[in-house]
Amino acid sequence: MPHAVVLGAGVIGLSTALHLQSQSPYSITLLARDFPLPSETIDAVSQINFTSPWGGAHNRLVPPTNPTEEREHAMSLRTFTHMKTLHSQNPGEAGITFMKGVEYLEAPGPAYKELNDEKAKSLGMEGFRLLRKEEYPDERVTWGCEYDTWCVNPMVFCSFLLRRFVYLGGKVVRREVRDPVEIFGMRDLGEVDVVVNCSGNGFGDEKVFITRGQTCLVANACPVTVTRQNADGSWTFCVPRNFQGGTIIGGTKEPNNWDPNPSPEVRAGLLKKFAATYPCILDSHGGGFQVIKDIVGRRPTRKGGMRLEREQLSNGKSIVHAYGLGGRGYELSWGVAEGVAELLPKPTTRTSKL
Ligand SMILES: Cc1cc2nc3c(=O)[nH]c(=O)nc-3n(C[C@H](O)[C@H](O)[C@H](O)COP(=O)(O)OP(=O)(O)OC[C@H]3O[C@@H](n4cnc5c(N)ncnc54)[C@H](O)[C@@H]3O)c2cc1C
Ligand SMILES: *[C@@H]1O[C@H](CO)[C@@H](O)[C@H](O)[C@H]1NC(C)=O
Ligand SMILES: *[C@@H]1O[C@H](CO)[C@@H](O)[C@H](O)[C@H]1NC(C)=O
């Protein structure tokens, strides 16, 4: 059987490994430095480059305005359908919650302004409703809507994917590499035909940069996921993680900022702005927030969008690249996994080297 090694056990590597395991003729090994752990034990200093634990993570359906966004939108819809299936087949286990997504915009662009019931339907948005003026949180908000969406508790979800992969026969190796090409020479893995590069921020592609995100994890519950786009370009949002994982209040988007330390002033600002936008989040904790911890993560961003392509090496082997998901890794995860499956070379019979 041909053999593919998936490098990386963030949401992209895990989804890809699980999908290829059942939908490709390859046997699959998952190799990574970092694996999902209970989020309480992930180290904010040594594991800051492992992005998946620090994500929200919610799904936002963004009206596409160019071909890159159209491709991403299609992937987010496929992921939505897949999340529904996973959730219904494994209720309470996969770390997924379905709920309303609420959007408030201070300065909506044309793609938002054009959204109505019909347009939303053509974009595959279920449960869409434009909000009435009385429902806006304040006068600066000039446009709002809600629709059906999902959130995950990242490490509950990722651990579920990992367990499922192993349960269905997948092999796992914890190892750090300097370059994906090294994997072809690792004798203990056996013959390797394809490496799938799901290394997130990994190894010096010049187009890859990080987008720092500071958020704050609170114990307060919230029944919906709320996103507000402010006129100055900043964001005010929450992501209920559920499964005893609290709610994320966010958040910053700071390209090329490598500061690993959370700022207390930023935390105070995020909490204040969110409470003003959605005051009933304070109800579950006597009118205040119960802070669990600050979070700083590094979104693996790439100029021109994610890299999803196959590279043929001179020795007949190939690498399939699947990285640079920025702030949308969870939302697009299953679409990316399907994209990788389409890019895998059709296996030819290998001559035995015994
Ligand atoms: C604050 C914040 C909020 C976010 N909110 C959302 C959200 O609401 N919705 C959403 O969809 N996304 C969200 N994201 C983005 C999302 O978290 C990322 O897009 C996603 O986690 C990227 O996953 P990945 O698998 O590509 O990378 P990673 O999770 O970084 O995984 C990379 C993997 O590669 C391995 N690796 C790297 N280098 C090596 C090496 N040299 N040797 C061996 N292994 C290696 C790592 O160990 C790890 O296993 C958010 C991100 C942040 C920071
Ligand atoms: C994170 O990645 C950067 C860039 O590759 C590297 O310089 C840094 O040492 C990494 N940090 C940790 C804690 O691994
Ligand atoms: C693998 O992915 C990383 C991004 O994580 C990229 O920087 C690197 O160039 C890729 N590896 C190869 C061999 O192209």
TrEMBL record:
Signal peptide start-end: 1-17
Pfam family name, one: DAO
Residue numbers binding FAD: 51-52, 177
Coiled-coil stretches noted in the UniProt entry, renumbered to this chain: none
Domain FAD dependent oxidoreductase: 4-343
GO function term, MF aspect, one: D-amino-acid oxidase activity
Any GO CC annotation of this UniProt entry: cytoplasm
Essential cofactor(s): FAD
GO terms, biological process: D-amino acid catabolic process
Family designation: Belongs to the DAMOX/DASOX family.
Protein name listed in UniProt: FAD dependent oxidoreductase-like protein
Protein species of origin: Pseudomassariella vexata
